[in-house]
Design brief:
Structural class: mainly alpha
InterPro entries: MATE_fam (IPR002528), MATE_MepA-like (IPR045070), MATE_MepA_subfamily (IPR051327), MdtK-like (IPR048279)
Shape: globular
Membrane topology: Multi-pass membrane protein
Helix content: over 70%
Pfam family, one: MatE
Keywords: Antibiotic resistance, Cell membrane, Membrane, Transmembrane, Transmembrane helix, Transport
Family: Belongs to the multi antimicrobial extrusion (MATE) (TC 2.A.66.1) family. MepA subfamily.
């Protein structure tokens, strides 16, 4: 990351691959949903959505390490401490691999309990166990592939991150078609396709670091719990943002079953897939600016840090408006990707609730990038206030209140109300974070 490169060029260099990578992640589950819906049926579609919180949990753990390590490593690279950067990079990968093995073993031994906890019903239990049980076998690759993908950007090769995830995405789509449609392996086939795609992306990124092309490489290290603790502390806000998706899906699934009925789970599955694509777009922008902000934060270049934030905010604003308009105007076409209109009542209901949900897309991006910026400038407490607020606390309380007031209708507008409440918190947090940044640099001078 050289000063001769304009900030705008750096912004594009890092944000575009980051958004592309996040799209690919959301497309993994979306493609699985589309194929199992067409190849198996609506119950299978609902089962994949019920299984989503487990996958979100795996991804949240990966983000926990990846975001934290990326921030710490980027700051060390910015201050020319390359040896420390390599040690931290390797240490956290090893810790995450050990954790992945533990998660896989514990999950496989408790598959039935996990399926029940996720909310599997009598009609979806078999599908949920097949899908989640297969995904568990690929836990290591789920966690490590995203970690290496984020760190390859900190190493100065964001284009390789894009190439890696595109290879993985194409693999997933092709294998989904072969396993689900052609060979009739059902939801298990979709899960195997997704797992193999993760193996491909992991292998691509791993080979890069073995070649030692950039500044980062695998090296010997001394275990330092304080480093791991710092990485986890920094990564909590972004991880919480992803984990919140799992928590929200669980809570919404249970609420829908009790208030509306099982058929509405199919509608919520479609809403979830669209929401995940939009949310990951916002997260991609947020995570794209983080290594640049962290780099200039390490160099104590306040003006560059704030300029990158301004570009990020502008991009978020445009993306939010475009996302809302596309979903609201083309709701029928989007629903048709997952459901045919043979069951006209279910189809029309899904279109209506998707449009009810869509105004939340206008706001959530601001909250996500506020949390991400605070992470980048080593203010995890402020980031946590926003991410925990929008991800768990506010949305849970809002959902309960909306159901009490509006019944089933309240479920579909709860996210919008929640994001509006968090927006007020975000504006205050961002203002104080900027003031803190100004004070820190004035003290350094």
């Amino acid at each position: 990351m050289e000063n001769s490169i304009s900030l705008k060029s750096q912004f594009k260099k890092y944000v575009v691959p980051s958004v592309a990578a996040m799209w690919v992640f959301s497309l993994y589950s979306m493609v699985d949903g589309i194929f199992v819906s067409k190849g198996v049926g609506s119950d299978a579609l609902a089962a994949v959505n019920i299984s989503t919180p487990y996958i979100n949990m795996l991804f949240a753990i990966s983000i926990l390490f990846a975001t934290g390590a990326s921030t710490v490593v980027a700051i060390k690279l910015g201050s020319s401490e390359n040896k420390k950067a390599n040690e931290y990079f390797t240490l956290n990968l090893v810790v995450m691999v050990i954790l992945a093995a533990i998660i896989m073993l514990v999950s496989l031994l408790n598959l039935d309990k996990i399926a029940v906890f996720l909310g599997a019903t009598n009609s979806t239990m078999v599908y949920v166990k097949e899908y989640v049980g297969t995904i568990m076998l690929f836990t290591l690759f789920y966690l490590a592939s995203y970690y290496l993908e984020v760190l390859i950007k900190s190493d100065g090769y964001p284009h390789l991150a894009t190439i890696g995830v595109i290879i993985s995405a194409i693999t997933n789509i092709v294998l989904d078609y072969i396993f689900v449609i052609k060979l009739g392996y059902g939801v298990k086939g979709a899960a195997v396709a997704t797992g193999i795609a993760r193996v491909f992306s992991f292998s691509f990124f791993f080979i890069h670091f073995l070649r030692k092309r950039g500044k980062l490489k695998f090296t010997k290290f001394h275990f330092d719990f304080s480093v791991v603790k710092k990485v986890l502390f920094i990564g909590i806000p972004d991880s919480t943002t992803e984990l919140s998706v799992a928590v929200v899906i669980l809570i919404f699934n249970q609420s829908i079953l009790r208030v509306i009925g099982e058929n509405a789970l199919v509608s919520y599955s479609v809403v979830c897939y669209i929401n995940t694509l939009v949310l990951t777009t916002m997260m991609g922008i947020s995570q794209g600016i983080q290594p640049i902000c962290s780099y200039y934060y390490g160099k104590k270049d306040k003006d560059s840090v704030l300029s990158i934030l301004k570009m990020g905010m502008k991009t978020i604003r445009i993306s939010s408006i475009v996302s809302f308009l596309i979903v609201f105007v083309f709701a029928k076409q989007l629903v048709l990707l997952f459901l045919n209109n043979v069951d006209e009542g279910l189809f029309n209901y899904t279109v209506n609730v998707l449009r009810l949900f869509s105004p939340a897309f206008l706001i959530m991006g601001y909250n996500v990038i506020t949390s991400g910026f605070c992470v980048a400038v080593d203010m995890p407490v402020q980031a946590g206030i926003v991410s925990l607020g929008r991800g768990v606390v506010v949305i849970t309380i809002t959902l309960i209140v909306m159901i009490l007031i509006f019944g089933g209708f309240g479920i579909w507008i709860a996210t919008l109300v929640s994001e509006l409440i968090v927006l007020i918190i975000s504006k205050n947090v961002l203002k104080k974070s900027k003031e803190s940044l100004e004070y820190e640099y004035s003290e350094a001078v």
